[in-house]
Records
---
Amino acid sequence: MEMMEDANLGTEPGESRFRQRLWHLTLAPWASRRRRELLELLDRMNPTIEELTAAVEREARKRPEVLRRMTHPGVGPLTALAFVLIIGTWERFPRGKRSAPTWG
């Protein structure tokens, strides 16, 4: 758990302290192989993740209702956009209590 507290995942292979600490852990051969495979997979996925993140941020900037929700602490573009697209406007619910099932 200690590693996760100061994790700096970075964007380039090998640039983060967390990744360096992962590489220096002594693991059994199969666990070591799995660690390498998963880090390689992360490296391959990062460009796609960055592209999708940029698309969400662009869409969020187009919608005033999303920007308004992003003024709340801890609410970023993804959460705000998902809220607006899934929940919609408050007019959809006759009373506040009627929105509860939507929240799960």
Note: Residues 3 and 18 are 7 Å apart (CA to CA).
---
Amino acid sequence: MSLLPEFKAELKQYSLDFKEASTSSRHCEADVILVEPVVQPDYTKSRDERKGELDLTPPITNHP
């Protein structure tokens, strides 16, 4: 998955220096990591009642 051309143009408009890389190759060198959401909200419902405990994102353990 890569950045859309419209988004690249917007970044260039603001004179931002950016590089696209695979998730495993350069994340330690990045100042900012853009992560797109995996689950999109359902805006057709006003509320989503949940039962039970939800899973949490695991902590990063291989941090230098």
Note: The helical segments are 5-13.
---
Amino acid sequence: MSDLLVRLFDLPPLEPAVAALDREGIEVRRALASERPQVTVFARAHGSEGWAAECEAAFARQPLACFVAVERGVGVAAGEKIPLPGDTLIGFACYEATCRDFFGPELVHPGARGRGVGRALLLAALHAMRAEGYAYAIIGWASSVDFYRKAVGATVIEGSKPGIYRPTRR
């Protein structure tokens, strides 16, 4: 997998993506410090131990470098949506967790994919990076080049495979 480059000064607007999800009962927002345990457990369960570690790094930063998507008052049991009193974490996106100016990891629960959640989380994090003064962002070790190309015009950085992501030493 290669790294991708995104022009932060040419991003699509964030508000329409967030508003569309809000109408469906999904809130996209910067994570709260108290949500660190839920996000890291979610990352470990649906992603990897490495992603959980990167989430920990994003939560250690100020401002917090993690955005979450929560579905209000709905839970999933055996693949069926059921009413619950509270919110259910359905995705997250971090930045500056691995290196400065890097976006990722990002993860949306398989049952919530195809609804625009990943795109809204991506835009929220990239707009935050732009607000912090960056002109470009790197999406590290992108597994879905077409998604990022379509969502934000990302381009492959030639010669970036494997980039900074070397095999873990044992």
Note: The chain is about 30% helix and 30% strand.
